[in-house]
Amino acid sequence: MPQADARVYVYGVLAGADAPNVSADGVEQAHVRTVEHAGLAALVSTLGSEELAAAREVRAHWRVLEDASNSATVLPVRFGTVLEGDRAVREQLLEPNAERLTEMLDELAGRVQLNVRGDYDEQQLLREVVRTSPQVAALRDRVSRVSDSAGYYDRIRLGELVAAEIAARREQDTALAMARLEPFAVSARAEEISSQNGAFKLAFLVESAEMDTFGEAVGLLRENLAERVTLTYVGPLPPYTFAETDLSAGTAAWA
Amino acid sequence: MAAVARAGGGYLERPRPSGLADVIDVILDKGLVIDAYVRVSLIGIEILTIDARIVIASVDTYLRFAEAVGRLDIQQADDSQGLPELMESMTSGGAQSKTKGALEGVKDAISGGGDDDDDDDKKQSSSSRRRSSSGSSSSRSRSRKSS
To answer: Of A109, A138, A156, which closes a domain?
Structure first.
């Protein structure tokens, strides 16, 4: 079977003029190459099998995008996207979406994604909840005086109150962090928190030239949150969060 | 992470390069969606996409919170910013790992299987774990050109 008909795994899309420099191996350790059309280039690698080991290939996907975005603006494609072959990449991805993709690349050029995550120290957070909520403190006292089985519903109620207090703090801290950082970004998103100790998870699109200004704001925020929240500041990342678009609508004409 | 003192008293922070664990959620969840894709099997994808939010609003979680709050030594609540607090949290690793979010556990599994590229974010993902792993893991930062 000629190479052109082999299925391809797609990592991302970039401007055809930006020669990507990808040394990382792709999915199934395949060589990463480009398929070009309409001034755009798709980063792909040829796929041999129909089954992919998700945990391993997620890593390959990530590495390829990290590598490529060192030298170019890349629109990441969702993990696990496979097309019928090079021809399908041109005719079903690049051709019908050329205008939209070019527009997005222009919009993201010279900008990077920076993530700021806040985490609580659980012990400290719980202490603060007990200290500041009389309701929680009172219920905690009551529960401590009875057996586990006798206090079952009180314990659920206590946990519920604690969870509500934590949710309220998350909301406050998310708003605080947003207020401090958003003015220095082109765009900002608050992502859903997916871990128990998470305070906030924010993604920012920042002008590369403004990274220092943004970094100063992060430093001030860290001082402001003091010991309460541990900040993790990560980047620059390919604009995963800001390239979130469903291209299905663009390809529907012939379907 | 790098921090440079500024004249005004603030700090200019530089982000650290991402590890896989920092971005696994977005990799699985975000990015361009293409209509004309071919279906392939992604073996083991379910363990990467466990929805931790289930954990956050269940009776089990409430009971765990109640237990954790009950265990607190309230004597220490009065000086929570001080050294005793720090000592306490350094020695309470057992209690903390019990209440660790489910997704973090999954991330540990991902990070642990394979190579050492994201050791550095395991250290960062919570203060207690940073303390506990800083002695044992070799962190290797990926160097990147800033574009």
So the answer is: A109
Q: What is the ipTM of this complex?
A: 0.77
- Residue spans of the domains in chain B: they are 19-128
Q: Which of A79, A194, A208, A213 to mutate to test the interface with B (most CBs of B within 10 A)?
A: A194
Please report residues of A whose CB lies closer than 8 A to that of B68: 122, 126
> What is the pTM assigned to this prediction?
0.74
Nearest to A249 by CA among A49, A100, A149: A100
Do B146 and A215 meet the contact criterion of CB atoms below 8 Å apart? no
Instruction: State how far the Cα of A229 lies from the Cα of B17, in Å rounded to an integer.
Output: 21
Mutating which of A69, A79, A149 best tests the B interface, going by the most B Cβ atoms within 10 A? A79
Contact A127 B33 (CB under 8 A): no
Contact A71, A50 (CB under 8 A): no
Last residue of a domain, which of A109, A138, A153?
A: A109
A203 is in which domain, residue-wise? 112-241
Chain B contact for A160, CB < 8 A? Answer: yes
Higher-scoring residue by pLDDT: A49, B138? A49
